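Pasting as-is:
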Amino acid sequence: MPTIKILPHSEYCPQGAEITAPAGTSICEAMLENHINIEHACEMSCACTTCHVIVRKGIESLNEAEEGEEDLLDRAWGLEPQSRLSCQAILAQTDLTVEIPKYSINHAKENH
């Protein structure tokens, strides 16, 4: 199973973390299953940008972003070339390093 190294984030993962998840799992699902409660206001339906992450290592192993995801990412805070919506980025067999941006465009937390 691939390992996902999550860089420290003051709210969701203050100490950082290393988690594992089976190939075929989205980054968002893997984080939620490991008690890293990243925002996902649209319930992982690719309709918002609250689960935006930056894949610092291993992005080439993920599935290709589809047009709908790319269109949404244009609205994400802190967009970078390695940005993905974690609900759409599906794990392969390669380890990843992921950063959760400091901010999102979500003005009200959904308390998931």
